[in-house]
Model the fold of this input.
Amino acid sequence: MQDPVPVAAGPFKTILQNTSAFEKRVKRRISARPHVFFAVCPPGLGGVCEHEVSQVSPKAQEIFSNHDKISDIKVLPGGIEFKTRLKTACLANMLMGSATRLLMRFASFKADGFRRLEEQIKAVDWELYLPAETLPDIRVTTRKSRLYHSKAISDRISPILHDRLSLKDASRHHNTGPGISQTLMVRGENDRFELSLDMSGTPLYKRGIKEKVAKAPLRETLAFAILTRLGLSKKDTLVDPMCGSGTFSLEGAMMQCALPPGVFRSFAFETWPGFEKKSFAHARHRLMDAAGTHINTPNLPPILAQDLSQTAIDHLKQTCSGHRVFQRITPVCDDFFNMTPPPIKDSQGVVVLNPPYGIRLDKKNDISALYKEIGHKLIADFKGWRAAIISPGKKEFQALNLGLSTMPLFHGGLDLYTAIGRIGK
Ligand SMILES: C[S@@+](CC[C@H](N)C(=O)[O-])C[C@H]1O[C@@H](n2cnc3c(N)ncnc32)[C@H](O)[C@@H]1O
Done:
């Protein structure tokens, strides 16, 4: 005979009732409804980012077997706005390669004075959005608003959050480790304020893969967007001859095996009350399993990562030992100008170059001379390959003399002219 199910009594019963009442509120107000989200992306990546947003709902439907859709996709300055449920937006954080972070927009109101601001902040059900005892960092920006002093605005908001999130001791707030910091963004324009929570925490270009990084690493978001523009497929041999910490090679290895860029990292939303831990873990496992079948495909073409710096190559070897998806990468210490490209079939070759820039090189201190030489080398040995060469300016782009198109990008405070296309066409 089975033991009788114990019945909660006294104060314990009250706690259980309160817990389930709270969970029901979270479900009704947060999980079951669509909300507005915003994928922040670097300048020049709007098109790639918009396409990625549109690809999230089919993936979510496949993984969660639901009919959750992404709607109202809008390209806005600085990123892409869209509407969906929290569960799908959480998945978007893991799937998207070009976004810097995802924000959840959750309140909007008019306030032309501190009293109105405080009333509106008090009206938000903070405990449904943020975990207890977590005081978020508050970032305020305002334009053309009567309330314009960022510090004064955040000083009014902070005690309300402190109170509402039962923060007994401010030193206990959780903004310490990677992936779990919480940030509240307050944006005011023409006296209308918009509140957003940063879902991602650590920026999404930090994939949680590299332990050691060489000098001047490329942002993963840019590498992802460039490889996407080149249409990297799993039939392509990828060559990254000035690889540094190997951003192109690592992104390429994941893309070719359909491994989502954020699969190895954590996110700020993982501590939110509305986060559905089990279904997110299920999604992570399914995506990893699916990638596993690609990784085991025989005859996947090689990824060749080369650099003059032995230290960079040592770091990359260490990174590649972290997961078997990266074991296809062959890091070699050598000069690009000595490289003999691996043989390719049917023009299925992609070469990506991120030469040193922003520093003076030899060649009579003229960086254009290096770009000219790169152009010669590519024409001589990489005819028919699809290529992207990151150039710090128009002069260097022209020095390549490859007749390629440009993909405008912004990185490290510079407007870049990335040359992109097929060599010798
Ligand atoms: C801007 S960094 C590349 C950064 C890299 N994309 C990353 O994400 O870390 C330029 C790299 O080119 C390498 N390099 C410079 N001249 C080279 C050459 N002739 N052959 C191979 N590598 C070279 C440098 O050692 C440096 O690591």
About this structure: The two ends are 80 Å apart (CA to CA).
